[in-house]
Amino acid sequence: MKTIIAAYSGVLRGTGSSLLSTVQDLPSIPWFSKSRVERHLQIISVLQWVLSFLILGVTCTVILIYIFCTDCWLIAALYVAWLVFDWNTPNKGGRRSTWVRNWAVWRYFRDYFPIRLVKTHNLLPSRNYIFGYHPHGIMCLGAFCNFGTEATGVSKKFPGIKPYLATLAGNFRMPVLRDYLMSGGICPVNRDTIDYILSKNGTGNAVVIVIGGAAESLNCQPGKNAVTLKQRKGFVKIALQHGADLVPVYSFGENEAYKQVVFEEGSWGRWVQRKFQKYVGFAPCVFHGCGFFSAESWGLVPYSNPITTVVGEPITVPRMEHPSQKDVDLYHSMYLISLQKLFDKYKTKFGLSESEVLEIN
């Protein structure tokens, strides 16, 4: 265990690979083999993100309130003062950190599944883009790894393009969590933020929006390829108003990361999920992955199934300050066709059978 802790501390500093090489000098005990230690580092890297996603914001809020009740209240007061001063930073593109995006921990995160990013067409740095990411899955693991970090080399594959992964605005009201997200280039998925990035931040920006949102997360079962898109047209209108090209993105394997308990329509479980979705902005899912020490047991660690994210061909969008509903419908239908073609072209290459279809709701 001391070996794993020492190696993982090196992961955060970016020296994990060199520390792993020292494992070869250990006695020939199977548990201390290089491959076993590396696998455990991968699991720890994934688990820390899962726990951050689920409880970091709430935990830090509780700790901050507690500190206010102690002799260290001045520290909490100073942080709250900074929070007020810095409140609008997420709405202006955030505060990304190249150092954080290049942490070695994200490479272990990537290799656990593994996660791959596939480029099909070049993107021009002189244009702005809106990436439509599908499907949502439980935690958007592929979206985070590919666009919230440099683990899969997004900046090298698309030189001159700066991705901004958009997520729930409520996350940026949580102390510490907001700064953690911003360091990865993650921003709130609201109109003001997207308008700012696409109009006041120059060119070469790509806002990554998980179009299906909370509704889609309730229907992400393994083996099912379903997206919520037919009535989601707001992103097309924004693209037209800013002349930002639309890019369909499909992540094969995203739904296989967890197994979800799906409640039937009309059940109390579905009713609770719908209410949360309507008033809070997210839907609480009942799901499970595997345990830390065994793939047979239940736990929060996602299943290590490959996730391959394919970035499709951009759809050139003209700039219209006041697009009509007819214009929105036209480009929305073009987007639907492009996404369908992307799915059909690559499904057999990344683990799906020829007979499987994309269900667009």
UniProtKB/TrEMBL annotation:
Coiled coil: none annotated. Its main location: cytoplasm. The keyword Disulfide bond does not apply. InterPro entries: DAGAT. Pfam families: DAGAT. The keyword Cytoplasm applies. It catalyses: 1,2-di-(9Z-octadecenoyl)-sn-glycerol + (9Z)-octadecenoyl-CoA = 1,2,3-tri-(9Z-octadecenoyl)-glycerol + CoA; 1-O-(9Z-octadecenyl)-glycerol + (9Z)-octadecenoyl-CoA = 1-O-(9Z-octadecyl)-3-(9Z-octadecenoyl)-glycerol + CoA; 1,2-di-(9Z-octadecenoyl)-sn-glycerol + hexadecanoyl-CoA = 1,2-di-(9Z)-octadecenoyl-3-hexadecanoyl-sn-glycerol + CoA; 2-(9Z-octadecenoyl)-glycerol + hexadecanoyl-CoA = 1-hexadecanoyl-2-(9Z-octadecenoyl)-sn-glycerol + CoA. Keywords: Acyltransferase, Cytoplasm, Endoplasmic reticulum, Glycerol metabolism, Lipid biosynthesis, Lipid droplet, Lipid metabolism, Membrane, Transferase, Transmembrane, Transmembrane helix. It comes from the Eukaryota. The chain crosses the membrane at residues 43-67. Pathway: Glycerolipid metabolism; triacylglycerol biosynthesis; Lipid metabolism. It is an enzyme of class 2 (transferase). Its EC number is 2.3.1.-. Belongs to the diacylglycerol acyltransferase family. This is Acyltransferase.
